[in-house]
């Protein structure tokens, strides 16, 4: 696809996603995941009270040290503890929720009317390869995002501007990694590819359509800028208002991530269906709507 | 039937197990952690109020202060002193105890600070009770217990219970040693100062005989500590305190001997300059041995010239040169100090002041005026910078240049006005106001002087001189401006605002004379 075609496909994918949002397609699995995130957040915020005092508190101590169990540091550390817990949650539950959402999007885009339960069933049927795909993406993204602090942490004080640039470059690289693997789950769920084939197929598709793919991943991330900025200024919020306010910031973040994920998955699935409609290796048999509307 | 029953029993068992697990999860909390969280949260809320008040004095209303005190009371009531704390105690329990003790200390201070003549007895009683509870109930934490003991001594001293204060200090000394760690490398300065503080308390009260005895005891204590903790930082600190104890008694030769011992046993680049400066000072001012003193100052200047100790030594040497009429050499040394320490306001201003004084002593008036003017312009908020404009006026007065003196007085007024405007709310503003009042009085600008006095007293109502300023303003209105009505208003204000102050009695006297 040339550049203009890529932009056209991108805008068309987003408009289709908006129409899916109006019909609340695929929201259920993402809401289940967001609900689980809120439960985890509540457990972390109320770690000092039963039953979390005997279950969650030792985990926080193990991961972040004794200081994270003191008020108000516990709220300043909430972003870190939630981030760590979310990595686990995203692999165990997020993978299935993503797979279910992809299935439900595909059903909607191809004229089907699959129910949320069907999406979950299909997701758990391919749970293992989906989890492996999420682990691969997560590990690579974590490695790249931690690289600036791990390798150039000494620049933070000595050359703050250079360090900031490095962090921005790392964020761009993480988005690129997510872009490369954004079609892995569609390949597993919709094209029934094995994990190796899905990884290779996703990278090939992303590299053939870099502009569309990168923007599908990057643009919804902009939504996260406000809660991310608020979370970065956690100390100010804690001192000026109340440390507990940081929990609210993370609740907002969860909601924003819910919508950002919706737009990313919705647009990626739509584009995937369009871009692979003529791929010989793709078996559409698994697809509930039989791609009647695919490639419109 | 049987199988139905069995299934039913299984279901009941499963339900019971699930209920037990749920109850276990809810019940098996961590009470210590929960308590610590509660305590830290309450403490944070109180600290937030305190921080807000310290950042913005306007919101430090009686209501806010009462809220802070209530917050501390809530913590104290919610978290009583622990029964036993030892190495097996959960750290969360120790943390809670510390929070409660900190609130007890904070509340006790607030009670004393906010006591009025009517509430003094009750407030001080409560404060003492709180401090005793920390001293006796929190002895697992040395810092808290020592702090409480010393505060108790201060409260007793403040309320006139001198023997109680002395006993309290003795109690702290008996219970705690001078080192905070077993190796003696972390000296406890509060304890180390205590023997000398106790002796000084007798001396200040004019109890010479007891003071002498307690000074001797203090020296003995320091000698014992120095021997016990020999070779450690505690030993070093004890030796230095012993030197200070001899200095406080005016036993200069013994003080010199101790400083020399200190130099020999513990001298290093970190402390040698300060030891030599102390020795130089004693030799010059107390023993009249200027030669030895100069030798010590020169050693500090030579070896530590780039440090503030080096600058202090150079200034002292310059003063010696000035005293011996070696003005050129003195000014060269002072110029070198200014060149090296131009950014250190206090040092540079001091050097400039002495350079100006040197010109003045030589009778080089123009140079002296230029130097004093530069001092006021470059360091307007320092002690010497503030004094410089009026020093120029005095100098013209001494040489009989009346007209130049009047002009200098006008210029001084402008300088002080600028400082008041540009450094509002700082200690420099208060000092500049005092100089400005002095300037207006010298100019015989009575109305301005009276306004400035009452305005300054209104702006700094808690300043020690506020009541006297109002009386002085009233005197001006009465004697110079023929406005007894305004004088009466100000005197009435003194009586109402400062009921316990000596100035109030004086104001009442004048008011009575006015009505007669």
Quick take:
The complex is a heterodimer of chains A (296) and B (516). With 296 residues, chain A is an all-alpha fold.
Order of helices and strands of chain B: HHHHHHHHHHHHHHHHHHHHHHHH
Kindly name the structural category of chain B.
Answer: mainly alpha
Number of distinct helices of chain B = 24
Shape verdict of chain A: globular
Mean pLDDT of chain B: 91
Cα-to-Cα separation, first versus last residue of chain A: 15 Å
Oligomer: heterodimer
> Low-confidence parts of chain B lasting 5 or more residues at pLDDT below 50?
none
Along the chain, the helix and strand elements of chain A come as HHHHHHHHHHHHHHH
Q: How much of the residues of chain A is beta strand, in percent?
A: under 5%
Question: How would you describe this protein?
Answer:
The complex is a heterodimer of chains A (296) and B (516). Chain A has 296 residues and is mainly alpha-helical. In chain A, helix 2 (27-45) runs antiparallel to helix 5 (78-109), helix 9 (160-180) crosses helix 12 (210-222) and helix 10 (184-190) crosses helix 11. Chain A has helices spanning 3-22, 27-45, 52-64, 73-76, 78-109, 116-125, 127-152, 155-158, 160-180, 184-190, 195-208, 210-222, 225-232, 234-240, 245-275. Chain A contains 15 helices and no strands. Chain B is built from 24 helices and no strands. Chain B starts with a helix and ends with a helix. The chains are: A mainly alpha (296), B mainly alpha (516). The A-B interface holds A 48-51, 53-55, 57, 66, 69-72, 74, 239, 243 and B 25-31, 33-34, 36-38, 40-41, 44, 48, 51, 91, 95.
